[in-house]
Write a structure and sequence with these properties.
Elements (H helix, E strand, L loop, with lengths): L7 E5 L3 H13 L3 E5 L2 H7 L6 E5 L7 H11 L4 E5 L4 H9 L4 E4 L4 H17 L4 E4 L4 E4 L4 E4 L2 E3 L3 H12 L4 E3 H9 L7 H15 L9 E4 L3 E4 L7
Parallel strand pairs: 1-2, 1-3, 3-4, 4-5
Antiparallel strand pairs: 6-7, 7-8, 8-9, 10-12, 11-12
Helix pairs in contact: 1-5, 6-7, 6-8, 7-8
Bound molecules: calcium ion.
């Protein structure tokens, strides 16, 4: 991370005292922290970009597991679960639904901070700032949000950029239209499938040399789309 660009952490915790302590410790380490005291507030805040989520299992309106599941359906965002259940089964379940790590309450804030750092180190390595694809035919600069096709800058809308990022970061993975709609619009999108086709069509016009025979964004008939680019070696 560049200086001045602080990693952002979402803390989903209804117990005010715990949330405040966690926030204080994380902020002291230079992280930017947002707190969501309920599941629904967490889902709203998750439309913004975070580098990591600290997620309490027991929330007033939802189960932490459900939020974790929603996060996992949409991204690889690192999740640390806070749980008061120390039973073996619950721990396994917590990881089984896609949490990257868990901390059992009562916990030491220092330990939580250490886990946050370790997890960000682990996940940060795989997260690049610039992607160069198919011999530099397509380049995506994540921090400046600039996209270059054969060296020429192309201007994408924020939605097109979000879709392209999802493709680039998950090359080879098949996305359904629903999944792309969620990525494009946030977690409560209820729009019509076809708008995604329109975004993809526009994106193809901008990044493909021949949008009738796309090199990057392939259609997977009956399912959705798949990104076909190959990452260049560093
Ligand atoms: Ca709780």
């Amino acid at each position: 991370m560049d200086a001045g660009q602080r990693e952002s952490i979402l803390v989903v915790e209804d117990e005010r005292k715990i949330a405040d302590i966690v926030r204080a410790y994380l902020e002291r380490e230079g992280y930017s922290v947002r707190i969501a005291p309920t599941g629904s507030e967490a889902l709203t805040l998750l439309r913004e970009r975070f580098e990591l989520v600290v997620l309490d299992l027991m929330l007033p309106d939802m189960q932490g597991e459900d939020i974790c599941r929603v996060i996992r359906e949409n991204s690889d965002l690192p999740v640390i679960m806070l749980t008061a259940k120390s039973g073996e089964e619950d721990r396994i379940r917590g990881l089984g639904i896609g949490a990257d790590d868990y901390v059992v309450k009562p916990f030491s804030p220092r330990e939580l901070v250490a886990r946050v750092k370790a997890l960000l180190r682990r996940t940060g390595k795989s997260r690049k700032k610039t992607y160069s694809i198919n011999g530099g035919n397509l380049r995506v600069d994540v921090s400046s949000r600039e996209v270059f096709v054969k060296g020429e800058k192309v201007v994408l809308t924020p939605t097109e950029f979000k879709i392209l990022m999802a493709f680039v970061e998950n090359s080879g993975r098949i996305f359904s239209r629903d999944q792309l709609a969620t990525i494009a619009q946030g977690f409560d999108f209820e729009g019509y499938d076809r708008t995604i086709d329109a975004h993809v069509k526009n994106l193809r016009h901008k990044i493909e040399s021949d949008s009738k025979s796309p090199e990057f964004i392939r259609t997977v008939y009956g399912i959705g789309y798949r990104f076909n680019g190959t990452m260049d070696e560093d």
